[in-house]
Write a structure and sequence with these properties.
Number of helices: 14
Bound molecules: heme C
Shape: elongated
Distance between the termini: 39 Å
Amino acid sequence: MRRGFSLAVSCVSVFGLLVVGSALSQDANEDEVRSFDADLGVAYIDVSSYPPEQQALYPVFAQKCSKCHTLARPINSSMTGDEWYGYVNRMSRKPGSGISPKVAEEIFSFLSYDSQVRARSASAVDPALVPVLAVSKELGGVQRIAAATRNVDPESPELRIRVDGDRRLDVKKLFQSDDGQKIARWTQREPNKAELQVLPVENLGGSAPKAAAAEASGAVADAAAEAIGNESDPEEKVELILDWLDESLEKSSWPGDQDAAAAIAAGKGDATEFTRVFCAMATAAGIPVRSRVGLVAQRTSFHFHPWAEVWLGGWMPVDPYFGQFPADLTHLRLVVDGDDELSGWDAGRYPGLDRLRLAVQIDEEEDEAPK
Ligand code: HEC
C-alpha cells in the first residue's frame, strides 16, 4: 500500500507543477497583479501598541511614503529590516520625493521596527496563487505568510518551522499533529512560540470512521459515476476522482463559495470549491472523507488553504486543488472542531492569527547556494 502511495505522489505532484506552470505563463503581466494587490491591501498600521517614539514616526512615514503611490504598497510589502534600508534610500532619491536623509533615517527606523513586530500580508503576488490567496481572505484575512528566503522543498525529508504567534495565540492549540501521528513534533518554550517538525505523511492512522453509506444525487452522483466507472479499489477511486477534477473543473482565479453541485455545473472552482466537490464525490463513491483547513507552502510562503482526508485504513491527506495524493508535507493542519473543518472554520476565534509568523529552517550549507 505504501509503495502505491509514493508512486502516486510522484506522478500527481509532477502534474500539479505543470498546472501551476501553465497558469503562470498565461498571465503576461505579473507586475501589474503585484502592485495592484499590495495597493488594495490594508492601508494603515495600528501602532497603538508600539513604543511612543515609533508611534511618533508613523505620521512621517505615512505622509512621505504615500506621495507617489498608496501607503498600502509599503504596508503590505514583505521587506524586512535591512532590505528596507536600501529601499527607503532608493525611494528618497527619486526625483521630487521630498525625503531628506534625516527623514529617510526616521522612516527606516519605523519600518525596521514595524517589520519585526507585524506580520506581512501579500506583496509579490504570483497569479498562479490568486485562488489560494482568495481562500485565505475567506479563511482568515491573512494573505501570505512569508516563511523562507528560498522555495520550500516539499520533497525534503523533513521541514522544521519556527512558529511565532501573537501573544494572544496559543500556537500549540492552533497546529495539530493529526490524530497523534507524526506530522508534527513540538518543542515549546512560550505558548506563542514553537518549533514544528514536519515529516512526510505516509498514513495518519486514527480510528476508522463509521461506515459511510454511499449517497449522492444529481450532478454529484453523475460526476462520481462518470469518474469512477466500475472501479472498486478505494485508492484507485481517489485517483480517478482527482483525474476527473483535473479534466472537468477549471481552476478559478476568483474566490468562490458554491456548493459541490453548483461548482460542477459551473465547471470551475477555487480551492474551497475543489475541496467541496472532491468530498462530495468521495462520499458518493463510498469513501469516508473529511475536509481540512490549514496552511500550505507555495514557494517561499504559506497560505491558508483547504484540503481533504480520505479513510484508506488510516486517514490520508489529499489536496484536490493541487492534485496531490497524498498531499505534500507542507500542508500544516490547523485545529478546527468537527470533521467538516471547511464549514467549521471561524478565523474570528483566533485573535492574532493575522500576525502569525513562520520561518522555515533551511540548512546552512544549502543556504549558501547562489540565489
Ligand atoms: C517620488 C515618488 C515616490 C516616493 C516618495 C516613494 N515611492 Fe515607493 N515607489 C515609487 C515608484 C515609482 C515605485 C514603482 C517601482 C519602482 O520604481 O521601484 C514604487 C514602489 C514601491 C514599493 C514596491 C516595491 C516592490 O518591488 O514591490 C514599495 C514597497 C515602496 N515603493 C515603498 C516606499 C516607501 C517605504 C516610501 C517612503 C520612504 C516610498 N515608497 C516613497 C515611487 C515613490
